[in-house]
């Protein structure tokens, strides 16, 4: 299938698909005219990539761990490949720290709002 067809099937822009290709996440075949030729398995691969991106993983981490992704009846899940647990724990720690910073900022904002001049 052409890139426009894959984009339509997955809900991902052609630009994003080219970005995934640039990052080595997608490797389409090429036809005799040089056009990208995607397969049905690429639809699943894009779903896995999108699930990992939405969970906060960057393309470098996705490239390392994409083979750990599985698609089942309940969506995409990750098999705990070597080093993946440490990477996910680190990401969770960064998210927790950011949430704490946001709560503190929100508290300071609330205090400023409640001060009457």
UniProtKB/TrEMBL annotation:
It comes from Streptomyces caeruleatus. SMART domains: HTH_MERR (SM00422). Gene3D superfamilies: 1.10.1660.10. This is MerR family transcriptional regulator. It comes from the Bacteria. PANTHER family: HTH MERR-TYPE DOMAIN-CONTAINING PROTEIN, REDOX-CYCLING DRUG-SENSING TRANSCRIPTIONAL ACTIVATOR SOXR. InterPro entries: DNA-bd_dom_put_sf, MerR-type_HTH_dom, MerR_fam. Residues 1-68 form the HTH merR-type domain. The keyword DNA-binding applies. Keywords: DNA-binding. GO terms for molecular function: DNA binding; DNA-binding transcription factor activity. Pfam families: MerR_1 (PF13411).
